[in-house]
């Protein structure tokens, strides 16, 4: 399911499936996308930030057109203890790889990978980004 911002409308709460992963997409060319994410994260329950949230930064192949302060993006990941992933969705091979990576993260967050919890996985992702 896709949403352009949070909170989600409450009138359909009873029909909404369980949410296993939230991916906040930040377009590097749009200051609005970062501002929208910064406003939306406040509507997410704090427990979700324990391995069930990540930030996906798109457009990284176009750094010349960057409108987003990358320090602000890194700070979001740091403040909300969530991994920051980067991709260029305009390249088909990268689209497929990104989709596969997000699917694997979703499988872990949903509890479908034995021996790996979303909390452990999130912790590993943050450590590898810090190295």
Walk me through this protein's architecture:
This protein has 131 residues and is of the alpha/beta class. It has a single domain, classed as Rossmann fold. Helices cover 39% and strands 12% of the residues. The protein contains 4 helices and 3 strands. It has helices spanning 31-40, 70-79, 92-109, 118-130; strands at residues 22-27, 53-58, 84-87. Strands 1-2-3 form a 3-stranded parallel beta sheet, with helices on both faces. The longest helix is centred in the C-terminal third of the chain and has 18 residues, at 92-109. The relative contact order is 0.16.
Annotated CATH architecture: 3-Layer(aba) Sandwich
**CATH class label:** Alpha Beta
Instruction: Assign a percent range to the helix content.
Output: 25-40%
Oligomer category: single chain
Number of helices: 4
Order of helices and strands: EHEHEHH
What separation lies between the terminal Cα atoms? 33 Å
Biggest β-sheet strands, sense, barrel:
3 strands, parallel
Instruction: Supply the CATH superfamily name.
Output: P-loop containing nucleotide triphosphate hydrolases
Q: From the alpha-carbon coordinates, what is the Rg to the nearest angstrom?
A: 15 Å
Low-confidence stretches: 127-131
Number of E strands? 3
Structural class: alpha/beta
Globally, the shape reads globular
Strand content: 5-15%
Strand order in the largest sheet: 1-2-3
Count of all domains: 1
Mean pLDDT comes to 85
The fold-level CATH name is Rossmann fold
Overview in brief:
This protein has helices spanning 31-40, 70-79, 92-109, 118-130; strands at residues 22-27, 53-58, 84-87. The chain is an alpha/beta fold. The longest helix has 18 residues, at 92-109.
């Amino acid at each position: 399911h896709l949403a352009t911002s949070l909170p989600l409308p409450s009138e359909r709460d009873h029909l909404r499936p369980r949410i296993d992963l939230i991916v906040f997409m930040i377009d590097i060319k749009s200051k609005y996308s970062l501002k929208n994410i910064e406003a939306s994260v406040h509507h997410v329950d704090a427990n979700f930030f324990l391995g069930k949230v990540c930030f996906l930064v798109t457009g990284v192949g176009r750094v010349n057109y960057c409108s987003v302060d990358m320090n602000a993006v890194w700070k979001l990941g740091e403040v909300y203890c969530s991994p920051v992933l980067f991709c260029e969705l305009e390249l088909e091979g990268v689209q497929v790889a990104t989709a596969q990576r997000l699917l694997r993260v979703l499988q872990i967050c949903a509890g479908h990978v034995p021996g790996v919890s979303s909390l452990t996985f999130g912790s590993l992702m943050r450590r590898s980004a810090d190295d």
